[in-house]
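Table S2 (continued). Query chain:
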Amino acid sequence: MNDPLPTRWEVELEFIQSLANIQYLNHLAQNNYLQDPKFLNYLQYLNYWREPEYAKHLVYPNCLHILSLLQSEDFRKNILSPDFMSTVMNDMVKRWQNTENVIDVSPDQPNGTAESQG
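Corresponding output:
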């Protein structure tokens, strides 16, 4: 019995959630996807997942935060750094735990640097 191919919606759901995997982001950066204008347009297109009718299907809603960060050229460059990757991963864990002292890796930080919050 052949399984049907996934729908475009299912593929996009799986892909956007993969953005919550920081090692995967690093892989995308190492392979120059984060410099490809077509790929960046695709990331922009995926913002429709912010709409409640779509967001309710996300198991890893933090992927929307990462999608926002990916709009920053500095973030896209910095994600290549192992230290920056660790900072982002630690930030995600702290967000999941709702702890104080979350590191802000938002694009509006100078040069994509991290700043302690709390």
